[in-house]
């Protein structure tokens, strides 16, 4: 019986693919243009950005600032947040406040939503952009419980902030911008926990979108490699500590092009204002989804061969790292800003 269902479902899928693709593409195009025409103006609106002290979140703050939005900037490093707030004010934000908080702590989340509403009386956009990146083989982890902050920050931090913001976003007919990752679909060694946390984020928001209906928009962003502290090599190691390891960065990211954070931020805020449901940035990373969907075994084999060194050897002996050592290739794939291992305090 299973075989019959399988054959019927397969034929229906192939048929739908050929018949529906043109209609679906047309619908998507028309939908895109209608959203483009009715793009939201965020001037004077209130935007809360979690993960605003560096990288993508910092540049998203600058992009909203240029469009005249009032900003609530959240992360743990207070000094960096104040610096970002000052720059945002100089770029055109009418107000920008720094609220230091750890989003893996529900009490911090309640406090920062409270401070936002007390100060501005409304919330229009929530941008969830906080994240940490564990980078190690699962079996090398010394104490598996030391890695649980990955889910606490990358997943639960998003869930807490979303849960607490929904009443205010319903009232303002606002939006949630969820920074996930193309890693949510792309398997890679040393990234199992990070990728799982990002897949959880995508799945959470896809289901939540149905619960919220049209009152609150959700843009799921799946960035490829982007200029930030992560692409400078800031990772969580096998002991659960944050370290900067640029050799490991090179072995994992190789010659995959790293997009400038400002370019990515502009596309993210444009996508949110248009009401995009999904946004892959840069756009080419979306094509990797088709490779994974249609040729999963091949992707897995290639990824293993390219990213892993011989058993027992250091990751920097992997072909991925050696390729980056070919003269000229580093300059083409990485912006010079990620060459420095200096991370903000
Ligand atoms: N860069 C990429 O190539 C790339 C690709 C795909 C997806 N992403 C995703 O993009 C998001 C932004 O990362 P990024 O690339 O811009 O890296 P980043 O420069 O390291 O920024 C991460 C941000 O998250 C904040 N953060 C970390 N833990 C936090 C916590 N417990 N509470 C509050 N804030 C916290 C950090 O601030 P504090 O340390 O001051 O708290 C920082 O502002 C992440 O979700 C990341 O997974 C990045």
Automatic annotation (TrEMBL):
Q: Kindly give the Pfam families that the UniProt entry links to this protein.
A: adh_short
Its principal location? Answer: membrane
Sorted UniProt keywords: Membrane, NADP, Oxidoreductase, Signal-anchor, Transmembrane, Transmembrane helix
Locate the transmembrane regions by residue number: 6-27
Task: Specify whether Membrane is a keyword of the entry.
Answer: yes
A GO molecular function term, named singly, is: oxidoreductase activity
Q: Which InterPro entries match?
A: NAD(P)-bd_dom_sf, Sc_DH/Rdtase_CS, SDR_fam
Topology within the bilayer: Single-pass type II membrane protein
Q: Which domain of life is it from?
A: Eukaryota
Q: Where in the cell is it found?
A: Membrane
GO CC annotations, alphabetized: cytosol; membrane
PANTHER family in UniProt: 11-BETA-HYDROXYSTEROID DEHYDROGENASE-LIKE 2-RELATED, RETINOL DEHYDROGENASE-RELATED
Q: Which family does it belong to?
A: Belongs to the short-chain dehydrogenases/reductases (SDR) family.
Q: What's this protein's name?
A: Uncharacterized protein
* Species annotation: Mikania micrantha (bitter vine)
């Amino acid at each position: 019986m299973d075989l019959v269902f399988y054959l019927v479902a397969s034929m229906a899928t192939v048929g739908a693919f050929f018949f529906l693709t043109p209609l679906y593409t047309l619908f998507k195009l028309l939908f895109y243009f209608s959203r483009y025409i009715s793009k939201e103006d965020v001037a004077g609106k209130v935007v809360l950005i979690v993960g605003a002290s560096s990288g993508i979140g910092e540049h998203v703050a600058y992009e909203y600032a240029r469009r005249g939005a009032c900003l609530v900037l959240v992360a743990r490093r207070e000094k960096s947040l104040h610096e970002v707030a000052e720059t945002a004010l100089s770029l055109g934000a009418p107000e920008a406040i720094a609220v230091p908080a750890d989003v893996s702590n529900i009490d911090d989340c309640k406090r920062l939503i409270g401070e936002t509403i007390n100060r501005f009386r409304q919330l229009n956009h929530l941008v969830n952009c906080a994240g940490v990146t564990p980078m190690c083989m699962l079996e090398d982890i010394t104490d598996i419980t030391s890695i649980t902050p990955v889910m606490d920050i990358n997943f639960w931090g998003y869930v807490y902030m979303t849960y607490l913001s929904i009443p205010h976003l319903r009232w303002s007919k606002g939006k949630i911008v969820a920074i996930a990752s193309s890693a949510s679909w792309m398997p890679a060694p040393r990234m199992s926990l990070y990728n799982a946390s990002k897949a959880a984020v995508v799945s959470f928001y896809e289901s939540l979108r149905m619960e919220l209906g049209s009152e609150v928009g959700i843009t799921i962003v799946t960035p490829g490699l982007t200029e930030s502290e992560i692409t400078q090599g800031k990772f969580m190691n096998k002991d659960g500590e944050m370290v900067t390891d640029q050799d490991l960065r090179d072995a994992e990211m190789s010659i995959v092009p790293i997009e400038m954070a400002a370019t990515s931020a502009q596309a993210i805020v444009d996508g949110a204002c248009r009401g995009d449901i999904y946004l892959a940035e840069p756009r080419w990373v979306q094509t990797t989804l088709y490779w994974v969907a249609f040729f999963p075994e091949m992707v897995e084999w290639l990824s293993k061969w390219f990213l892993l060194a011989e058993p027992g050897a250091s990751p920097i002996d992997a072909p991925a790292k050696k390729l980056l050592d070919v003269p000229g290739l580093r300059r083409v794939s990485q912006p010079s800003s990620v060459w420095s291992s200096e991370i903000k305090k």
